[in-house]
Amino acid sequence: MIAVTTFSATGYQQYGKRMLESVIENWPTKIIVYTESPIDLKHEKIEERDFFSIPGVQTYYQYIRNVPAAHGKVDGGYNYNYDAWKFTRKVFSQYDVLQGYSGKAFWIDADCVIQRAITSGFLEQPLAEHGLCFLGREGFYTETGFIGFNTESPGFADFLEKYIGCLRKGILFTLKRWHDCEAFDWARSFGHCKENNLSPFFNPQMNEKGEVKITMEELDVMSRSVLGPYILHHKGPSRKMIAKAHALPEPIPAIA
After folding, report:
1. Do the Cβ atoms of 17 and 113 come closer than 8 Å?
2. Cα(202)–Cα(183) distance, rounded to whole angstroms?
3. Model pTM?
4. pLDDT per residue of the chain (256 residues) written in tens, 0 to 9
């Protein structure tokens, strides 16, 4: 059993170092950390890997480097829903570990803090009979701050190839949003492996305009799930959010 995360050099200073310190204190296993520059925190629980050494990463990010929409620059402003440059790094990091690993692995966002000791037994339970466990948000998109993967589950290899293929084949840029949550949900939609949704209670209501109005408290399904007592996910200030269709940027052609 292992954990995985990634962050930029700035992210390490802002939140990643605190996250790793909390892993050392309260997480039961080693964590593989994909970094973009060396970090100063050394511990037997931390295995540091170079993010840009992942096969295909250099090609992918060179391909979208000069595409403003893929940096979230749309409609004269910034929209995180299209920031593939930032949010797809999670997918590459997960794939690099999972493709050659046999067992259970857990993704933890670098802006999380493990605030209470977690046992291996607790983590084993949601993946006992499933290939995936995750924080689903029906009608919106999955909260991917925490994901459990069981690589030995039937159909998992097929899911994993769909997941990375969503990026490699340019499928992501045909979807409603261009981030890792959308790629994850697209890969899940094929039903290759058995799933365990840890937040089945998420049930947003539609207003008279046909919009789903959601508060940050409602979107924060982690705090209301079984993970709530253990993991604090820093998601920014509380604010109203409206889930509705946006005008999509032009799709980016697949890499030849």
Report:
1. no
2. 20
3. 0.89
4. 999 999 999 999 999 999 999 999 999 999 999 999 999 999 999 999 999 999 999 999 999 999 999 999 998 899 999 999 999 999 999 999 999 999 999 999 999 999 999 999 999 999 999 999 999 998 889 999 999 999 999 999 999 999 999 999 999 999 999 999 999 999 999 999 999 999 999 887 767 776 767 777 788 999 999 999 999 998 644 333 333 333 455 555 555 4
d(CA 244, CA 235): 20
Residue type, 60: Y
CATH number of 2-243: 3.90.550
Residue ranges per domain, the chain?
Answer: 2-243
Q: Are 110 and 22 in contact (CB under 8 A)?
A: no
19 CA to centre of own chain: 15
Burial degree of 28 (CB within 10 A; 0-12, 13-18, 19+) = middle
Cβ pair 4, 94 in contact under 8 A: yes
Cα–Cα nearest to 182, from 256, 82, 112: 82
| One-letter amino acid of 100 | G
